[in-house]
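Usage

Read records sequentially. Each one opens with the input sequence:
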Amino acid sequence: MIGDAAIEVIAAEGMRGLTHRAVDRAAGLPVGSTSYYARTRAALLELAIARIVFLDQVMPASGSLPEFIAGYAFEAITSGRTRMLARYEFALEATRRPELRAVYDEGGLLIRRHAAEVLEAAGSADPVRHARVVVDWMEGTIFGALAGTGSLAPPTRESLVASAREILAGIGVG
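and closes with the structure output:
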């Protein structure tokens, strides 16, 4: 609950808006509740990024690999919008704060390792490199749809499936 509220605050107000009181308000908790669980701002940031990493972990559902990849991107653009905006705030903050860099990178490496496993199972000849290609495409697509000019006309699920098919065909996985 506190992690989710922190994500909402970060997405709405940026890192500067993240305070214990703001999280208390967002979570509908009495003043001081957040500071009981996360004594310092650093602890609050770690709690929020841990929640983002947890929410980012998904398992392939039934259906094709292009549909899974497109589904993840579409969810991130639509119902996962708040989480992704907060994640981008963390990415920028992590460039200035080494203690966040380690936590942020750990979460990103989990996503890439999982992608490599999925691609290896799908027949990739170089799953680590191919995971980077696929994840970078997803991250760029999601960022463009949320914060870039792509936000003017976000991609549909169908267009994401078509693009995912093209990406996978390009790396020899289908």
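Summary fields computed downstream for this record:
- The longest helix spans residues 98-121.
- The mean pLDDT is 92.
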